[in-house]
């Protein structure tokens, strides 16, 4: 990462955040759209952005944070470039989903909801991916992999930079 | 308002439209169990322990939030209803640590009481229990989320009554957690340590930090000269920790009990409450005369002080520089009293008994060391003293009446009323009036200062000077007054603010339960204590007079500034 790219990027994000605030100023029920907009800008909701939103909307930080953690769509931690979702729905569960999940945690060295330090992967569990016929199933970004066994995981992960 | 007729368990009653089933049943003397519900504070229908059968309804209805309608027929105790309540309870218990025997709320826990009431013998559900670390970051409040039943009472009190919003519910489902934002430690947040959350928590998920061990250790140490001070409110609430009726006055019994615990001297915070009035009254007059910052706001309450530091730092110049009575006491015990008695202040150990959790925070503030030592070593809540008495087999009710020790135990009725909202104001007015006019006050009862109205305002004629006052208790009410001051719309001279609803008699360290009814009884008792005193004006306190003659010289003098006054720290929000 070049040393001057970062600040320029920050300036751009800051500009977008201010525009977002501008757009919703005085509008009722703006909290959710602002959280969505801020996440679109930053990729997740950093603590200082939550505090900025709370000041902008004159809401206590605890309330903004409470809402942000209530909805699964919001992320409080940085997200990886690749999102790995392991299905633990009933069908996957009975057909070894838990073993897949266990192995995946080992492969990545992180737990549910966490992101690898190099920001390459974020690991999540889901309740059902809607393709129970293929169970056990995982998804990486938009690609689905079914009928998995633990030993296949490493090969799949290697495809994603 | 329209009236409706409903039938509950076969009994008819006419109530106003909009009444809940719970309240209508209560009018009939029918009790419905509740857990999350807390009158006027938390009415969210979260726990479902209060479900009842309503004829024609497809599901059971929560009585605490369901309004009655014309002709409604309700059954509160059918076998199916009781079974439904048991299921609710067992689901909570399945996720509860069940440490009752070693829990601080043992025998005073609403969950335990319900389990006993419903005769729960086994929990039919088994599942993962939540594991969360205990948050003991704060000097006053300790959180154990494992014991949380997610009733949200603490959030309601902290957000709606105190407007501090230190707690929030995060995530959902099994992962739901009641905690500060960002799952931060409470000590790093705007929490003002008022302890109101600990007062409403039905379990031990939020409680005061227990410092009794430190006091036992000091009492056991032969080198220590251990003195205790008791806050004004303690004498009208301590009895409740040992089963006495709310509003019992136990002043002399408490003194006797403390002596039996082994304290070397039993002193009274009422003494330094009187001292506070003399200093603060003079500060007010000086500000009025010399064009200082007005309105001046009281500074006795550490919960309020932390609140203004976080939320209204721009108003800090309005806050009186007087230390609280607790801290004035510590400073006087380790200077004046130490000198007078020839005791090394390093050997003096000062314990306070307070209705308050925030006092634990206050005594650890870095400024509170003006004697050269930490002025107050340990602040215990009334609840903790109750526990010490229990351990020592001292029953307050059975104690004889004994007197406080002189001189730091000598006080007036003005000091005693500090415990109730409006008391500091009333005490100050009694003194300011006589100082300004040089005349004796005919009626020393300023009843306009008393009672549970959220914001009390009045104009009091002091000689030819009309003094405009305001009194707020509960931080949400304080905000109303502060916003006016901030906007320059307030022409008050003097404002009293107490963090806790009702003032310290309803403080976060009070016996549990503390509700409006209990608060009113303690308030009545407080004014009875005042009426029974021979001296009822702070400046008449002979021990305070002697303190000035022998040591301080004059109010607002050099020594006062050094020992009795302080400064504040702007803190901001989440910074
Ligand atoms: S102590 Fe007071 S401010 Fe802190 S969390 Fe409890 S109610 Fe809120
Ligand atoms: S901490 Fe106590 S008051 Fe707060 S939600 Fe949990 S059980 Fe209820
Ligand atoms: S009102 Fe009294 S009990 Fe409550 S925080 Fe203030 S000093 Fe403590
Ligand atoms: S007491 Fe009615 S739902 Fe909790």
Q: How are the SSEs ordered, and which strands pair?
A:
The complex is a heterodimer of chains A (161) and B (575).
Chain A lengths: L4 H20 L6 H12 L4 H11 L3 H10 L11 E6 L2 H5 L2 H12 L12 E6 L11 E3 L2 E3 L7 H6 L3
Parallel strand pairs in A: 1-2
Antiparallel strand pairs in A: 1-3, 3-4
Chain B lengths: L2 E6 L2 E6 L4 H7 L23 E4 L6 E2 L10 E3 L3 H16 L15 H8 L23 E3 L9 H9 L6 E3 L6 E3 L16 H5 L5 E3 L3 H9 L4 E6 L20 H11 L3 E4 H21 L6 E2 L4 H10 L13 H17 L6 E7 L3 H6 L14 E4 H10 L21 H4 L6 H15 L17 E8 L2 E9 L1 H12 L7 E5 L17 H17 L9 H11 L5 H6 L12
Helix pairs in contact in B: 8-10, 8-14
The site of one iron/sulfur cluster (SF4) has 14 residues of chain B, from helix 4.
Roughly what is the average pLDDT of chain A, rounded to an integer?
91
Quaternary structure classification: heterodimer
Structural class of chain A: alpha+beta
Strand order of the largest sheet of chain A: 2-1-3-4
Per the CATH scheme, the topology name of the largest domain in chain B is: Rossmann fold
Strand content of chain B: 5-15%
The CATH class assignment of the largest domain in chain B is Alpha Beta
Please state how the strands of the largest beta sheet of chain B are arranged side by side.
Answer: 2-1-5-3-4
Give the % helix of chain A.
40-55%
Listing every helix as H and every strand as E from the N terminus to the C terminus, the arrangement of chain A reads HHHHEHHEEEH
Q: Predict the CATH topology of the largest domain in chain A.
A: Glutaredoxin
Q: What overall geometry of chain A do the principal axes of the alpha carbons give?
A: elongated
Tally of domains of chain A? 2
Please state the second-level CATH architecture of the largest domain in chain B. 3-Layer(aba) Sandwich
CATH C-level class of the largest domain in chain A: Alpha Beta
